[in-house]
Amino acid sequence: MFVSKNTQIIAIDIGSHSIKLAQLKKKKNVFELMNFGLMPLEPDFIVDGAIENFDGVADAIKRLLLCEKVKTKYVASSVSGESVIIKKISVPVMDEEELAMSINAEAEQYIPYDIDEVNVDFQILPKEPSEEAGSSEGEEQMDVILTAVKKDVIESRLQVLTAAGLYPVVVDLDVFAIENCYEINEDVDPSKITALVNIGANNTNINILEGGVTGFTRDISVGANVFNRAIHKEFNVSQEVTEQLKYGIEVEGITQKQVATVIEASITDLTQEIHKSFEFFSTARNLEVNNILLSGGAAIMPGLDVLISEKLENKKTDVLNPFLNIKVNYKNFDPDYLDTIGPMAAVSIGLASRRFNDKT
Fold first, then answer.
1. pTM, rounded to two decimals
2. Any bridge partners for residue 334, and if so which?
3. Which terminal CB of the chain, N or C, has fewer other CB atoms within 10 Å?
4. pLDDT, mean of residues 316-321
5. At a CB cut-off of 8 Å and minimum separation 6, what does 342 contact?
6. Average pLDDT in the 253-271 region?
């Protein structure tokens, strides 16, 4: 492919509920929003993170590309779920080329799959100035983020993008895309432990940043659909009305107060799993999460940040704004729309910041 670091790419975030498209242009250290769009998906197109209707998803991508008048065919996308493994490991100090040759042997110690069933990648983490790395034998060590994804998961994603007429050039992980989005839009304080919590329809991604870099990640198979099921059961309304109620719109005489009661009663499974993740990190690292940043479709729900804060020992909880430090020409984009759907855009904006020659 005739590509360079300046070749424009688009980001496609394929979620269970919708497909998000984003395109950014970088000039010096500033990103400008060139394109953003969203296309809903039928409920049975993607089930438990797996694409069940390839033609339907590919057609939805094609329609989104057409609606947004996208010209480039090069695309960055991402995956998440139980088939994704992320580990922070320590290995003897070596250069990147040496590690690339030995990473599969290192990975076999941490991956519960046959090494031939996964794609493996890594990122060498910067060494802290005060860090005194070393093994019991005195051999100097370095920290590495190891990632492994089952090949069939990646192949499925590549097939649907190719069927939509696109050329995939970057496959990232949702948690790292959100981290990129966070770094673009927030002043990262390395002294704070920040949890990026992305609540999608069926899954929740957690990325705890320690010293400004990933310290712990986990994908939870609980998402915003737990609220949908509870609302539908309580009020016996259609899927469309359920969505409206979830996002704070009063429908058919059902008040926001009534819906809030249902949501509070149904959030326990989600907050318990988030709490378990925080406890695991705290036990392993002897550090406490200072604050939480929410993203994903559920983060649009009115008052969810307050409710989650209350359920998680009143930890400071805010909603991530993916467009906060992005230059936006409001002649081309509706500011109210971007403000409303912002949390849903976190993965796609993070992906859109990627370039061909990026390692991270």
1. 0.91
2. none
3. N
4. 96
5. 300, 319, 320, 321, 322, 323
6. 94
8 Å CB contact between 313 and 195 = no
Q: What is the pLDDT of residue 129?
A: 53
Helix, coil or strand: residue 210 = strand
| CA distances in angstroms from 73 to 8, 193, 343, listed in the order given | 9, 38, 26
User: In one letter, which amino acid is 120?
Assistant: V
56 class by beta-carbon count within 10 Å (0-12 exposed, 13-18 middle, 19+ buried) = middle
Over residues 299-306, the mean pLDDT reads: 95
pLDDT score of 251 more than 70: yes
Question: Does residue 90 surpass a pLDDT of 70?
Answer: yes
**What pLDDT sits at residue 135?**
45
DSSP 3-state of 176: helix
Q: What residue has token string 């948690």?
A: 175
Check if the beta carbon of residue 21 is closer than 8 Å to that of residue 348.
Answer: yes
**Residues in contact with 173: Cβ distance below 8 Å, sequence separation at least 6, in sequence order:** 78, 79, 80, 84, 86, 147, 149
Secondary structure, 3-state, 271-332: HHHHHHHHHHHHHHHCCCCCEEEEECHHHHCCCHHHHHHHHCCCCEEEECCCCCCCECCCCC
